Sequence to fold (679 residues):
Amino acid sequence: MTAVPLPAAAPASPGLRVRRALPWAALVLLLLVAQSLLVALTIDYEASRKQEQVEAVSGAAAAQLRHNVGTRLQELQALLWSEVSQPQWQRDAAQLLHAHPDLLRIERRDADGRILEATDSAQQPPLFTRIPRAGLSLDSELACVSARRNLTPSLSRSYFVPRDDGLGIEVIDACVPVTRRGQLDGTLVATIGLSALLDGAITAEQSRVHELSLVEGDGTRLARAGLPRGLGVFVAERPVDLPGLTLQLRVDSTATRPQLIPNLATALVLGLSLALFGVVLLLARDVRRRARAETQLAEALALRKAMEDSLVTGLRARGLDGRLGYVNPAFCAMVGYSADELLGTYPPPYWPPEMRDEYAQRQARRLDAGQSVADAREGYETLFQRKSGERFPVMIYEAPLVDGGGRHTGWMSAVVDVSAQRRVEELSRQQQERLQAAARLATVGEMASLLSHELNQPLSAIASYASGSLNLLQQPDAQTPGQLQQAMARIAEQAERAGRVIKSVHNFVRRREQAHEVISTERLIDAVLPLVRLQARKSGTRIAIDVPHPSPRVKCDRTMVEQVLLNLARNGIQAMEEATPLPARVLTLRVRQAQPRWVAFSVIDHGPGIAPDVAQRLFTPFFTTRHEGMGLGLSLCRTVIEQHGGALDFGVTPATASEPAGTEFRFTLPADSKPEQRA
Ligand code: ADP
Fold:
């Protein structure tokens, strides 16, 4: 195998393309939806996580605030326990102020609210330089009243203390009642800076990313802590319950609302990774499937190649331009050219040079007719030439090459070398011919006594006319010339009669050259009639000829068909020789145009008919019921008729009022409508 011009793969139909694209479109859509959902969920999750963070910070800071305030109040109370001298109290208070930056000032007041002792924090400038502090503000006073009444520490509402540097500070006062031996002995008033208090309640880490504020109910900010400014996106507010005072703690995160872009990117990366993974899986599956298909294809190709290589039938493919696109090894071996010498050639080298024009025309006709060549698959016989120059007959069966898209792309031919078959056929034809000739000679041999009798009559007539003529010459008289002339005429007549017999035998026996000729049925019957009559005369049989005028013409091998006619006629006459009464001994030779294409011959006798056991073996070679018969007649007759494409059979003719029953042998020959060509 060399080149394989496989038909071009057909483009996928639109329907198929849509079916293939659908799963991919669905996959892409699903991926998009999944990714969008993922992004939305991620953003939502992140937002709630940040909110939770802020809530947690606010909770922790509020608890710390409460704890710090509680601790301050306890320490302030501890300051009261010591019965100390004035300097000692001062030291203890200063120590406390030093320990806690949120404590700004500690005052000791008597029961009437007058300041007994006061110590300011050393870390801060003195607090009350710009506003008087002798009397407490209303809010502080209220807190102290409450403390004194309940004998528990109480905190005042916050108030603003301006400072010398133009700024100010928001503070609260813690009033701790002082009792001595069960009697109220004054109050301890500690001023606490809210900012410092707040600073002390949060860790450094919290202050880095959160802004914490203490606000009033109306939203007024009293103090703030934390390095940055909050953005107002994630905010948590929580009340801080202190003794006598409730503050609102507000935590504002610096975190922005979760951004779509960075999250989208994350989701995209995630989604794409998943998609990539999926695609890789798909690809792997596809590759596996392709590999399997390739293996199957390779196996199929190997099988096809092995089959093609082992084929004895030549295969060739031709394109629409008539050029060879493919040849198999058997074809190359048949014509003796290599595939390279054949492919792409036009005209191909195996066309005999003198027939190239004819073959080219035939090919052009075939191509014009396209795929619809009716006999394409039936095959046709033609002659090829081997590289050695030897001619050989081939049988070609062609089929149109149609590609996947239904387009006619050329012709595929199976080429069979029929030279051996033709040789055998020729041999068998020659043998058949020899057999026919032998059978004809045998027939003549069988008719030898009839012939000798037929020849004897004119010969003895000639002899007697000759001796009569001699006598006349020995005793001539006046009438001698006239009588001699008459005798000579008779001699010539008889000689001609004998000559006719000899000629009819000769015509019957000799083999004519022309195999098939067109001839009228009348002439065919006329040719055998002398011999038929010869046979009939012996048994007193009459011959009836029933041929229409003008007689139909047939195309046949004349010698052969004459032999068939004579055989059937002789059989009929012989069948009537014994049992048939003399008046009924009539042999009818009938010709009818059965169909436009066929002419039917009938040979009808009124013999005893054919027994069933004889009928079964009638056409078996060498079957005969006669001593002198060869039994070849009917088998040869059938062969001859079938070689002409016709059929030979027999049947019973029923008895009529005028004729007894009999046997009818029928055969058909192809009719010819063309004018008769006389050989
Ligand atoms: P043959 O004439 O040498 O016997 P055939 O093949 O012509 O060989 O005939 C075979 C046999 O068929 C004959 O011997 C005869 O018995 C029978 N037969 C042929 N034609 C007829 C006929 N018209 N009527 C009866 N029998 C026939």
